[in-house]
Every structure is written in C-alpha cells, then in structure tokens.
TrEMBL record:
It comes from Clostridium tyrobutyricum DIVETGP. Catalyzes the methylation of 5-hydroxyuridine (ho5U) to form 5-methoxyuridine (mo5U) at position 34 in tRNAs. S-adenosyl-L-methionine binds at V40, S70, E88, D134. This is tRNA 5-hydroxyuridine methyltransferase. Homodimer. Its EC number is 2.1.1.-. The gene is trmR. One of its GO terms (biological process) is tRNA methylation. It holds the Pfam family Methyltransf_3. One of its GO terms (molecular function) is magnesium ion binding. It catalyses: 5-hydroxyuridine(34) in tRNA + S-adenosyl-L-methionine = 5-methoxyuridine(34) in tRNA + S-adenosyl-L-homocysteine + H(+). Belongs to the class I-like SAM-binding methyltransferase superfamily. Cation-dependent O-methyltransferase family.
Length: 216
C-alpha cells in the first residue's frame, strides 16, 4: 500500500535499490513488523546512514526511541564513534529498547532517557550535531525551540513523519481525529521554512522527512 506521500511504484523501486538488511537490523525490523512498532522506513534509515557518513557526528539526539532500531542504525553507521542520547516515554518500549541496547552491545554509545521529550529536553544542556525528531507528531512545533537551543552551530535537524500520510499536504486526506496533529505539523514546517535563519528541505520520502540547518 502506498504511504500517501509518494507513488507506490517509486517507493517500491527505491526500496528495492536499498535491498534487505541483515544481522541486528534485520532482527529488529522483523520484531517491529510483527509487533506493529512504527520504526523508520527503509528509505529513511538509508538516508540517516548517508547523512551520518557525510556529517560524521560526535553527538546525536533522538526523540522517540521505540525499540531502539534507529538509535542502533545510527550507531552502526557511525561505526560506534558517536554518542547517542535518545528519549522515550513509553515504559514498555523503554524496557525493550534497553534490552536491545544491552543484548547487541550498544550500552557505551546509546544513552536512553525515560521521560516525556518536552520535559527531558528542557533539562538537556549539551549540544548535538544531529537531532532526529521522531516522537509525538503533534508536538514537533513545541520541541523545536529546545532543539534549536541544543543544536550545534552547524548541526542538522531531521524530522520524520513530516508529511504524515500526505495529510499535512492536503486537507482532503485529513481524518478528523488527526486534525490537531496535522495542524501542528504544518505549524512546525512553517516555523522551519519561514525563518530566514534556517534552510529547510522537505522530502517526500517514507512518511515525509524535513531537514533543517542554520544559514551561515
Ligand atoms: N525512532 C524509532 C521509532 C520511534 S516511534 C525508530 O525509528 O526506530 C515513536 C516513539 O515516540 C514511540 O515509541 C512513542 O512512545 C514515543 N513518544 C511519543 N511521544 C513522545 C513524547 N512526547 N516523549 C517521549 N516519547 C514519545
Ligand atoms: Mg517515524
């Protein structure tokens, strides 16, 4: 089924180019599929891998750990040379992610903080080279001021689910109970697009991603 963001045959073709994962990532993907955990889509995982190879970040902040899939993917792409802080509020997810981080040997690189992103963010002081926003689609606009404060001067913010099944781009697709989330996601995209201090690119990949950097 198409994601509502891009054409199905294009998606399938791009996914076929990326190919199958193996090892740890494959195991986690299988678990996510069986248990309906919304981990990043293949294209987005591949994009994060690419970005990390370009940027070579020392410090990464992630909002939304779920089972630890994207954290582990990013840790693998940086050859365990980056430090990842990841935030998750759902206790069941936290427990599973902790198990995975331990089982696969990522305890040194991945620091999981249990709590609500908004609360945890206001207590963070470090600066990050990459911030990956993938939690609470209806709150990206509220997370943004904190993320900007925590972003290194030449840091990059990547947001997942930015087009949310296409609903963000078209009122015709919006289902009633998602109206608030959609409105707030639009607000987020306007905030990062209208501000002349930033450059933002929205890409119809996966469920839609946006990438934001500071202008020089
Ligand atoms: N980044 C993960 C997927 C995250 S799914 C991956 O690709 O592997 C989104 C997660 O965000 C869910 O587990 C959900 O419990 C969590 N979440 C949603 N709102 C949150 C909030 N306000 N604070 C912390 N976690 C939140
Ligand atoms: Mg997502």
């Amino acid at each position: 089924m198409s994601s509502g963001v891009s054409l199905e045959y294009i998606e399938n073709y791009i996914k076929s180019l990326i190919g199958e994962s193996s090892g740890i990532l494959k195991e986690l993907e299988d678990y996510a599929k069986e248990n309906s955990v919304p981990i990043v889509q293949k294209e987005v995982g591949n994009f994060l891998d690419l970005l990390i190879n370009i940027k070579k970040p020392k410090k990464i902040l992630e909002l939304g750990t779920a089972i630890g899939y994207s954290s582990i993917l990013m840790s693998l792409s940086s050859k365990n040379d980056s430090n990842i802080t990841t935030i998750e509020r759902n206790t069941d997810m936290v427990n599973i992610a902790r198990q995975n981080i331990e089982k696969y040997g990522f305890k040194k690189n991945i620091n999981l903080i249990e709590g609500d992103c908004l609360e945890v963010l206001s207590n963070l002081r470090d600066k990050y080279d990459i911030i990956f926003i993938d939690a609470g689609k209806g709150h990206y606009n509220h997370f943004l001021p904190h993320c900007l404060r925590l972003l290194e001067d030449n840091g990059i913010i990547v947001s997942d689910n930015a087009l949310f099944r296409g609903m963000v781009a078209s009122d015709k697709l919006v289902v009633r109970r998602k109206i608030t989330i959609v409105k707030r996601m639009r607000k987020y995209l306007e905030m990062v697009s209208d501000n002349k201090k930033f450059i933002t690119s929205v890409i119809p990949m996966g469920d839609g991603i946006s990438i934001t950097v500071r202008r020089d």
